[in-house]
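Quick question, first post here. What does this chain look like in 3D?
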Amino acid sequence: MRSSVRPSRWRGLEQGDRRLVRAKLETKMLLQIHDELVFEAPEAEVGRVVAIARTQMEQVYPLKVPLVADVGVGASWGEAH
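> Answer (accepted):
Ran it through. Tokens below.
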């Protein structure tokens, strides 16, 4: 079932995923855990993926205070933290 009304964070996820597809990247968004996204990306794409994900999550909704997205990179979830 798909709803026409989504929380704002889903908007950011969908837009970010579309940007990955449009950029013809091999990167895949694997899952979301609470406020965290997990991607699988070839090393050559990491910089572009970080930029896309950070931009989408920080600009998903206009706020009066800055929304900062922290990024961790590693071969596993544990290494990225």
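The chain has a mean pLDDT of 79.
The chain has one domain: 8-71.
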